[in-house]
Amino acid sequence: MTADALDPAAAAAASADPAAGEPAPAPAPAGPESGEPFETVDDAGRVTFRGRMADGAMHGETYDYGPRGKLQQRARVAGGKLHGELRRYDDDGALAEISQYADGVKHGDTAFYQHGRMVARMPFVRGVMDGDATYFAPNGLVTAVIPYRGGKIDGQARYYDTDGHLLRRSTWVADQEDGPQVAYYPTGAVMETSTYKSGLLEGELKRFFQTGELMQRGVYRAGVLVSPLETYSQGGKVTAKAEPPPRPKPR
């Protein structure tokens, strides 16, 4: 009944259906009466699972154990479905995940841990990510806040360095960058401004020196440069110019 691990680092690109592959309670062996605890063992006689029956289905606390006898997962079950808190542990016995379930699917916050520290907190509604997913650096500071709506990234995402400085704001619609994007220097000065449409650069791209002076400028349509990409010195002099690619000739 061990829950599948979800890699927090890849969660920003999580599936629109995070409920897929949810852990299912192990079937009870034949024989245990209602309310009677039972356990399963492997060929070497080591306990692999402990639980309790109620009305013909597992109910209450369940415990999964690894090959070395260490607890891998503790979960609450109602009517044979995960319902309540689930805790998962790594091979060294350290806490790896705390999730909330309702009727067999994630419902509420799921938190992931590494070396005893929370690295990600993700909100679920009836098995689908919905709300702000938050990621943390080893020092506990927030490194990213990613908004989800109905299982897709949707809204304004924020990214930070490990000292807590805002590095980037990006606007998303249904898993694609769509809208204004702003990048910052750690000092807070604007580094870059751009706009995306359906995941592609659209409109003016500007990059700046920390002083606020323009460093580079170009115009894009559907991700393709359509004007010269000009690079400037801090004094405002053009130091380089990249021409846009030739447009295909009409047939």
UniProtKB/TrEMBL annotation:
UniProt biased composition (Low complexity): 1-23
GO CC annotations on file: chromosome
Region of interest called Disordered, as start-end residue ranges on this chain: 1-40
Pfam families attached to this UniProt entry: MORN_2
Gene Ontology biological-process annotations: heterochromatin organization
Example GO molecular function: chromatin binding
InterPro entries, per database record: MORN_2
Alphabetized PANTHER family for the sequence: HISTONE-LYSINE N-METHYLTRANSFERASE SETD7 (PTHR46820:SF1)
The protein, known as: Antitoxin component YwqK of the YwqJK toxin-antitoxin module
Organism: Caenispirillum bisanense
Source organism phylogeny: Bacteria, Pseudomonadati, Pseudomonadota, Alphaproteobacteria, Rhodospirillales
